[in-house]
Design goal:
single chain; 224 residues; alpha/beta; six-stranded parallel β-sheet
């Protein structure tokens, strides 16, 4: 059967787990050749084998998206190896929540480096390719946290508000170039991202919120 994305090449950042992993599997099932990027090479290799065993095609490229050189290499290696890039899914993200008062400033930098600068580096690198092709689609994984600020989540809120602002500005900028920009504003998703919170109070709050509702699953976001 012909998939919706047959012949397309999609790059997914943060693909070693959670939403990124599920998105890679879903896009590959629709016929896309997927380029999977993350820091953990072992997880990428396992995912690539899983996709290929189901008849898909996957190219793992170990990448720290916060390093501009590595982000550039990801895009250019994918384009050189597969001859084109049609979709960029900026999924890599961290949610190191906690109060601003007494907050961990290294966590703040990490969130901006991954959630904002990592997204910008990959986007900056892919845009010349999209413009030359006359087509392309950038999908930014954002959050309802990009619209509603809450105590204890302020810096993460700021990064996701930034993602939304960047996305809308870019949409207006590249509209005439046949380049689409989409944001997925997800709610609370049960993934390992929640295990990385270093603030004990914030970690407890996340765990209580997950228990209080039926959280989304990575596959829900992948289907979106």
């Amino acid at each position: 059967m012909i998939g919706k994305l047959d012949g397309k090449v999609a790059i997914i950042t943060g693909a070693s787990a959670g939403i990124g992993e599920a998105t890679a599997i879903t896009l590959a099932a629709e016929g896309a050749k997927v380029v999977i990027a993350a820091r953990r090479s072992d997880r990428l290799e396992v995912l690539a084998k899983r996709i290929e065993s189901s008849g898909g095609q996957a190219l793992p490229i170990v990448t720290d998206i916060t390093d501009e050189t590595q982000a550039n290499n990801l895009i250019h290696k994918a384009n050189a190896a597969l001859g084109q890039v049609d979709i960029l899914v900026n999924n890599a993200g961290v949610a190191l929540t906690g109060n601003i008062h007494g907050g961990n400033t290294s966590d703040w930098r990490r969130m901006f480096d991954v959630n904002v600068f990592g997204l910008l580096y990959a986007t900056h690198a892919v845009l010349p390719i999209f413009k030359a092709q006359g087509r392309g689609h950038i999908v930014n994984i954002s959050s309802v946290a990009g619209r509603i600020a809450r105590a204890g989540v302020g810096i993460y809120n700021a990064t996701k508000w930034g993602v939304n602002a960047i996305s809308e500005s870019l949409r207006q900028e590249v509209l005439q170039d046949n380049i689409r920009v989409t944001i997925i504003e997800r709610g609370l998703v049960e993934t390992e991202i929640n295990n990385h919170v270093t603030d004990p109070v914030a970690k407890k709050n996340v765990e209580e919120r997950i228990k209080a509702i039926a959280p989304l699953q990575s596959e829900d976001i992948a289907r979106a």
